[in-house]
Amino acid sequence: MNGLYGIESAVLLAVYIVFLLAVGLRFFRKDRSSADEYLVMGRRLSLPAFVASIVSTWYGGILGVGEYSFRHGLSNWLVFGLPYYLAAFLFAIFLAKKARKSRLHTIPDQLFNAYGRKTSLVGAFFVFITTVPAAYVLQIGVLTETAFGIPLSIGVIGGTVFSIFYIFSGGLRGDVLTDKAQFILMFGGFAVLLIVLVSNYGGLSFLQSNLPATHFIWRGTKSASYIFVWYFIALATLVEPSFYQRCFAAKSEKVARNGIFIAIAFWAVFDFMTTSTGMYARALLPELADPIAAYPALAAKVLPRALQAVFLLGLFATVMSTVDSYTFIAGTTIGKDFIWRLKGGDITKHSRFGLVLAGILAVIIALYFRSVIDIWYIFGTLGTCAMLIPLGTSFSDKWRMSARMATVSMIVAPLVALIWIVPNLFWGVEYFFGLDPIYPGLGMSVGLFVIDKLSVEFK
Predict the structure, then answer these.
(1) Is residue 250 classed as helix, strand or coil in its secondary structure?
(2) Are 334 and 322 in contact (CB under 8 A)?
(3) pLDDT of residue 313
(4) Domains plus CATH for the chain?
(5) pTM
(6) What is the DSSP string of 3-64?
């Protein structure tokens, strides 16, 4: 093998793949044709399963976290940690119980109930583009290339196929079953690496002696305005499809709300491990050419072969837990919220077709952009601008927008953001007026909301 890792890692990964295949084959022998069973597990998702599933699903960008921690140190927590904890807390307080109480299957179902079919279809489009897991299958490709020297394209395609095999037949139940194992693997892998690092090199004093001072400053080498913008980007959590899906599937409203509170604590622990590990990577591998490989390169340097295999499996599990969940949401969006809503028929059958389509599109986007950050940034910004205000207010009779204005907002607001994005993306032009695209996009959405409320008030 030409990668960083040896035969032990390849064997353990092969065992893991066999496990995924076994899960898929198990569900092929069972009938999951009921839409309620296939999409939301019959609404029987327990608290432990809820926590394990949502924690592992929402942390797929592990290589990006490694890169940022390597470059900027503790600032990682203020960019990829705290803003998202706050947003998740707001979701738990204001939306989790309402989502479970609605007894719906998808976000477009909620938009349909609140605003009608046109708005629902527009919302389905944005749910789909934000959940096609291109950024995550790209990371699988990077991992296989770094670890084993396998060409990126083969890793991307293979990772996509294995990640959706078991949800094709098992639906959300298959997704949650594997998420439990992936939860254990992701925490176990980083715990092993961090323990070895502290034991062999020391703790905080070692890092302070071997890292730039900026790694211990709250903003790292970035400006305060750069840090601040992530608190707006994190608002995407309030329209995060995987949060709604788990809440729709929860046993009760209490499980939905408390599950997110508990998940926040687990994310904080995991962020502590990933940020610390990224900083050790910078201290021990200061000349590393590509910081996106910080975690696998560090493990290859400091761990014995057997533990390298354990850690690498944890990395794969962290990414694949997001690939399967997002592919499932994207597939069911195509199946239920487009095909079924337009022409009826078998929701489960339509959703399985959607899974295949979402997988193919994820591979194409990943191999075209080849940048995790670009994929996150573009599609995340558009989805947040489109849905934050119309969806967030749809649960309240008092604050809900009119159907017509909700549809207009979901089209115009992301269009404004796209106008900001395109010149920078294709020609490297600075953003108009120096504003990040999410500001004018959300500003337009808020402005249309205010106009809508005032027009109602003055009628």
Answers:
(1) strand
(2) no
(3) 92
(4) 7-369 (1.20.1730.10), 372-459 (no CATH)
(5) 0.91
(6) SS--HHHHHHHHHHHHHHHHHHHHHHTS----HHHHHHGGG-B-HHHHHHHHHHHTT--HHH
